[in-house]
Design a protein that fits this description.
Layout: E1 2-6, H1 11-22, E2 28-31, H2 42-45, E3 55-58, E4 61-64, H3 66-76, H4 87-123, H5 130-134, H6 139-151, H7 156-178, H8 189-203, H9 214-225, H10 227-232, H11 239-259
Parallel strand pairs: 1-2
Antiparallel strand pairs: 1-3, 3-4
Helix pairs in contact: 1-3, 1-8, 4-6, 4-7, 4-8, 4-11, 7-9
Length: about 260
């Protein structure tokens, strides 16, 4: 039996749920309350020492990291394959997905999400969120989180995040001008992996960012029309955080737009 430890609006959790939905796999739900720090408890750290979600457990064996989870599921459960058939296509798919682990997730969308919206949840805590920050196990991530929570849009990490995401979106738009999906004419793990990040842009009320990227905007419309999107993302939308992201994102967009020098 597959068990997924996940969170409703976590981008990486959305990715794992999308893979499970695309492959029509049954799984047991273990939802984690991140705001309460459930992912930082001793019992969960035994499953995932980095204290992040998701973690997949398959017959007692724990697999962390969303990209690894998706590749594992596609190999362990080969029906409805999500990787290109040819070696070159597989390599191109991995060139897309490896960017997420390199800098798109932690230095890109996570920084933007906290700077725009989630820092306000931290600041509402009695200690201004300091205890939550101190419990982040990775030192570099902890220092980045501290700066973004304290300084918001004025954090220098925000400029890097915006410029990195802009480069990514331009690359995606260029690839999608050539074919329907990121790696060709077939939907793959590359498309699945980037779906939560465009969803986060939508939740942050920043879709004006795509006004000059018509191919990327069209791709996202096709993505949202897939049945897996409603099952893996729409069903799990949490009105509270989504409302926070939308309202704070609308306030932040003029400043973010200026940083991009549009």
């Amino acid at each position: 039996m597959l068990t997924l430890y996940h969170n409703d609006i976590s981008t990486c959790s959305q990715k794992a749920r999308l893979c499970l939905a695309e492959k029509a796999l049954d799984w047991e739900d273990r939802h984690m309350n991140l705001r309460a720090g459930e992912h930082q408890t001793d019992w969960y750290l035994k499953l995932n020492r980095r204290a992040v979600v998701p973690t997949l457990v398959d017959n007692g064996k724990a697999i962390p990291e969303s990209n690894v989870i998706c590749e594992y599921l596609d190999e362990a459960y080969p029906e409805r394959p999500l990787r290109p058939k040819d070696p070159y296509g597989k390599a191109m798919m991995r060139l897309w997905t490896k960017q997420l682990d390199e800098d798109i997730h932690d230095s890109g969308i996570a920084v933007l999400s906290f700077a725009v919206a989630f820092r306000h949840q931290y600041l509402e805590q009695k200690d201004g969120g300091k205890s939550l920050v101190e419990r982040v196990p990775t030192a570099s991530k902890r220092e980045k989180r501290r700066d973004v929570v304290e300084r918001g849009l004025d954090s220098p990490y925000v400029i890097f995040a915006m410029k990195r995401l802009e480069a990514l979106f331009c690359d995606m738009d260029a690839a999608l001008a050539e074919h329907a999906w990121l790696v060709g004419d077939e939907y793959s793990l590359a498309d699945l992996a980037f779906t939560p990040y465009l969803t986060r842009i939508e939740h942050l009320n920043l879709m004006a960012w795509l006004d000059r990227k018509p191919h990327l905007a069209g791709w996202f419309e096709r993505i949202q029309a897939r049945p897996s999107y409603a099952v893996a993302i729409g069903r799990w939308e949490n009105p509270g955080p989504v409302s926070l992201m939308k309202s704070r994102g609308a306030e932040a967009w003029p400043s973010l737009r200026a940083k991009l020098e549009f």
